[in-house]
Amino acid sequence: MVDVVFQPNGVARTGGLRKRASLRTALKRKSTAAFLMTLPLILLILILVIYPAFYSLHLATLNKSMQRFVGFGNFEFLFKRETFWLVVRQSCIFAISAVFFKALIGFVVAHFVHNIPAKGQRKWRGMLLVPWVIPPAMSTLAWLWLFDPSYSAFNYTLSFFGIGPISWTGDPDWARFSVILVNIWYGAPFFMIMYLASLKSVPDQLYEAAAIDGANWWQRIWYVTLPMMRNIIAITTLFSLIVTFANFDIVRILTSGGPLDHTHIFATWAFRIGIEGSDIPLGASVSLFMFPILAVAAIFILRDINKRGNEA
Amino acid sequence: MASTVVIDKAAPTRTVKYGSMSRDRTWALRWSYFFLTLFAIFSLVPPLYMLITSLKTSAEISAATNPWWVFHPTFSNYVELLTSNQFLTFFRNSAFVSIFVVTITMLISVPAAFALARMRFWGSATLATGVFLTYLVPDTLLFLPLFKMFAVFSDWTGIQLINRWYVLLIIYPTLTVPFCTWIMIGYFASTARHGSRR
Do B144 and A283 lie within an 8 Å CB cutoff? Predict the structure, then answer.
């Protein structure tokens, strides 16, 4: 690419005007090439991401047979349904508690891995990353067998402690717990690996200085580790909040909405209404409720990118 | 800010080692290994249980024995799978889809990432940010409009997309291309930095 830019420059050294003109055409040619290289990407984003996003806005304003414009009719219908508020509540409970525990477990485990001698860290990291590597659709099946009411491995183990058989996916509260547990299991390694990377980048002198000043372990974490990791914690939490809020496969496979719609979240309920119930407009209006959290996250991340740009 | 002031003060002092500190250190190490073992068990139980169950016969699964152990290990499940035509078809479909999707993703995202990282042009910075934001758009937001779009597409052209394996060649790149491009932009940008230092 560099040759393309500089060759015409060398040839056209005779006149200032011609030089500038050829430079301009070269620049134009370079940007044209760059544009052509990004064209497939732009087309893909336009056709398969941006157009569907707006199309779902349009779909949400149609009636069930998709022939009549009903404006906000779908939303009015949703707001009157009890199941919708159940889904809203469950989505918030699911996303917030799962992300909180994922972040907490990731943070704690990252510290433990960081604590042990560097020689053995690879092995432990490998074992702890297993949940994140297995496709969630398959590992959720394994969890489904573990939770199974009659042949359940968990209930068998618990029976030794005198705890009665728990219907893990049958009781609304336990079903909520199970879904969140599987999500934590799947997502915690991501936090662990991100936090471990940022822990490694905290300079050791800070800890030595803190130790000499007589800081205990709590003060070391609060005044040294957390401030150094603030950025990475914010970004991973936001990112995980988006992914967890829009989760589909774990809930779908484990409970598929669960006892009496108690574990439905936006994505699974939109699927149930839109594809299985063949009311695409109503499903589209349900899935649009995932949009606000996306917008908030996008604003935060964009602000962060701009801030970093100014510092550099 | 306070911490940097502390470093300057602390730098000249010699490192002192107390006996109690090293004893604390061994205990911290023991606790670390203890909790790491707990977390490793937590993360390895489902895949191990999957493996254990795959070695059981149906009779043993439904028997009221200890589910955590295989008493009569058998490979009959694997033999049955690998000799059934249906499973081999599924396996071939998975292989085809993943090979094609990786090829398509690479063909689109590598040139685009190269152009975005190395060749500045009008709107390139905005496009790079846009790629990252697209990566953040959850796939579950898109599946309903995409479903409807494919239905309309087959009405217009007569090409059936829904319920065919090749529709995945359109769906998966939607999710993988922005991710790959974002990662590759970082890679190309870092190699460019090394190049300019030379």
Answer: yes
CATH for B134: 1.10.3720.10
Binned at pLDDT 50, 70 and 90, residue A23 comes out as low
Which three-class secondary structure state does DSSP give residue A69? strand
| Domain edges within chain A | 2-59, 75-311
Query: Closest chain A residue to B30 measured between Cα atoms?
Result: A116
Pairwise CA distance, residues B166 & A144, whole Å = 30
Residues A7-22 pLDDT 10s:
444 444 444 555 566 6
- Residues of chain A neighbouring B173 (CB-CB closer than 8 A): 44, 48
At B98, the pLDDT band (50, 70, 90 cuts) reads: very high
Task: Say whether pLDDT at A191 is over 70.
Answer: yes
B43 touches chain A (CB under 8 A): yes
Tokens of A5: 């830019």
Question: CA A229 to CA A206: how far, in whole Å?
Answer: 13
- B140 lies within 8 A of chain A by CB: yes
Is any Cβ of chain A less than 8 angstroms from the Cβ of B53? yes
The verdict on B98 and B183 lying in the same domain is yes
Interface test with A, best of B94, B140, B176, B183 (most A CBs within 10 A): B140
* Span B151-191, pLDDT tens digits: 888 888 877 777 787 888 888 888 888 888 888 888 888 87
Given B40, B61, B81, the domain boundary residue is: B81
Look at the block and give the residue holding tokens 């996008």.
A298
Q: Is B123 on the interface with A (CB under 8 A)?
A: no
Q: How far apart are CA A191 and CA A205, in angstroms?
A: 25
Residue B33: pLDDT band (50, 70, 90) is: confident
Residue B135: which domain range?
Answer: 85-197
CB A113 within 8 A of CB A124: yes
Residue B164: inside a domain, yes or no? yes
Q: Say how far apart CA B10 and CA A205 lie, in whole Å.
A: 9
Amino acid at the residue A174:
W
Which of B81, B109, B130 lies at the terminal end of a domain, its last residue? B81
How do residues A246-276 score in pLDDT, each as one tens digit?
888 888 888 887 788 788 888 888 888 888 8
Distance CA B49, CA A142 (A): 7
pLDDT (tens digit per residue) in B49-96: 888 888 887 777 777 777 777 777 888 888 888 888 888 888 898 999
Residues B158 and B73 in one domain: no
- Number of domain units in chain B: 2
Residues B172, B104: one domain? Answer: yes
Q: Is residue B157 part of a domain?
A: yes
Q: In whole angstroms, what is the distance from residue A238 CA to residue A245 CA?
A: 11
Q: Structurally, what CATH architecture does the domain formed by A75-311 represent?
A: Orthogonal Bundle (1.10)
Same-domain check for residues B135 and B187 = yes
Note whether A274 and B144 are within 8 A (CB).
yes
